[in-house]
Each structure stands twice: as structure tokens, then as C-alpha cells.
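Whiteboard transcription, Tuesday session. T.W. wrote the C-alpha cells on the left side:
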């Protein structure tokens, strides 16, 4: 297994000059690099090799980078994904993260920031909790990133999973808005309104089975309540 300072990285990028820039810069930081210039090539590589991290463009020939992230997001022990793209609108960022990316960086970018984000995303992937969380009629399956209710899967997005996992880790406590935004979007700058929208959509899914599991601490954050509080 690679050490924290040496990662096996797949770069999926169709701009050949950017490919060489990334290869050179990542190798200079002692990482090993494999490259692909289409989504099809990239998906073949992620299915045949074990990578610690993927640098993924969105605008690829044939299919978008979203498809690769979606392909990988439910795989146990999957590589960390950092999307590196010129698309810088909040909708693009949210779509990328919901597709399965762990972080999102826009072009132009600084190499030190990319290196830091890759390292951070890879560390988070390695230390992801393997214990399940149970609350009310629900079980959060952390190995497969699934939410089950009485053994029936409830569809949740990647962002909803990360939000619920953060609340479950601190169950019965108020989790600050800043903590939740960090858990879901990492260092990517997202508006507070995006967090409120995400909480509301997750709350609706839980409320369909049991009311009152997520409560609001006005001005502070949110809480996943203990069963005894229901």
C-alpha cells in the first residue's frame, strides 16, 4: 500500500498539454501517474488497476467525467476523486460532488493546492468509517454508502450521505453549519443556502418514514436526535 506521501494517481484529461503538466508536476511530488484522455479509457483503467486518487476532468470526449464518478461512488474502497475543470458555477460544483467526487478544483489552479487536496481526499478515503449507524427505522451502511429503512434502500445522493454520516457521528449533539459544510464539500466554497437545501431534501426523505429525526438549532446548526428524544 502506498504511503501518505506517495500516491498512485490516475489523471483523466483530454487536453494533452494539461496531461503533461499534471504528469510532470505530480511526479515531481513523488506520486506515480497513469493517464487517460477519454472517459472510456479512464473507466477501463479504474476497473483494472487500484488507484489512490483520480484527477478527473468533466468535459471529456464521448462521456462526461460525471459518469466515471457515478460509476465509482458506491464501490467499497474506491479511490478519492478530485474533479479538475474549467466549470466554476455552483451548480457544476454541486453536480460534481453529488456524482461522487470528493473535492472540486477549478482551472486555472495552483499546484500546491491540487497536491494538498489530493492528499486530503486520499486520507479521508482511507480513514472512512466502516461501522454502520442505526437510528429510528434506518441503518446507514457506510461500507457501501447506502441508507436502508427496514432493509429497503432509500436513495440518497453522495452529498446527502456525507451530511447524514456527519450528523450520525455526532448524534444527539448540535453539529455546526461550518462542520457540516466541511464534511460535505471539503474546502470548496459553497453558499449557506446550498446547505439548507441539502438538509431539507434529506429531512424530507427521513420524514417519509419517521418524523423529527433532524432538528434545527437556529443560528447554530443541526442535530440527529437520539431515539429517546423522539
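and on the right, the sequence the group agreed on:
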Amino acid at each position: 500500500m502506498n504511503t501518505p506521501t506517495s500516491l498512485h494517481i490516475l489523471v483523466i484529461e483530454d487536453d494533452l498539454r494539461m496531461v503533461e503538466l499534471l504528469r510532470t508536476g505530480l511526479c515531481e511530488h513523488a506520486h506515480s501517474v497513469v493517464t487517460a484522455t477519454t472517459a472510456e479509457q479512464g473507466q477501463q483503467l479504474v476497473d483494472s488497476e487500484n488507484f489512490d486518487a483520480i484527477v478527473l476532468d468533466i468535459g471529456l470526449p464521448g462521456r462526461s467525467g460525471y459518469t466515471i464518478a457515478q460509476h465509482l461512488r458506491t464501490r467499497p474502497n474506491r479511490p478519492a476523486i478530485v474533479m479538475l475543470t474549467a466549470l466554476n458555477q455552483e451548480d457544476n460544483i454541486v453536480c460534481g460532488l453529488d456524482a461522487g467526487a470528493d473535492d472540486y478544483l477549478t482551472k486555472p489552479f495552483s499546484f500546491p493546492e491540487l497536491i494538498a487536496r489530493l492528499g486530503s481526499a486520499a486520507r479521508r478515503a482511507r480513514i472512512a468509517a466502516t461501522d454502520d449507524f442505526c437510528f429510528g427505522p434506518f441503518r446507514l451502511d457506510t461500507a457501501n454508502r447506502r441508507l436502508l429503512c427496514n432493509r429497503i434502500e432509500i436513495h440518497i445522493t453522495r452529498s446527502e450521505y456525507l451530511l447524514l454520516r456527519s450528523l450520525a457521528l455526532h448524534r444527539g449533539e448540535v453539529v455546526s453549519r461550518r462542520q457540516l459544510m466541511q464534511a460535505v464539500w471539503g474546502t470548496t466554497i459553497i453558499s449557506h443556502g446550498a446547505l439548507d437545501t441539502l438538509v431539507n431534501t434529506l429531512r424530507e426523505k427521513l420524514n417519509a418514514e419517521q418524523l423529527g429525526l433532524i432538528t434545527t438549532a437556529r443560528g447554530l446548526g443541526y442535530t440527529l436526535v437520539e431515539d429517546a428524544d423522539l
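Someone added at the bottom: The radius of gyration is 18 Å.
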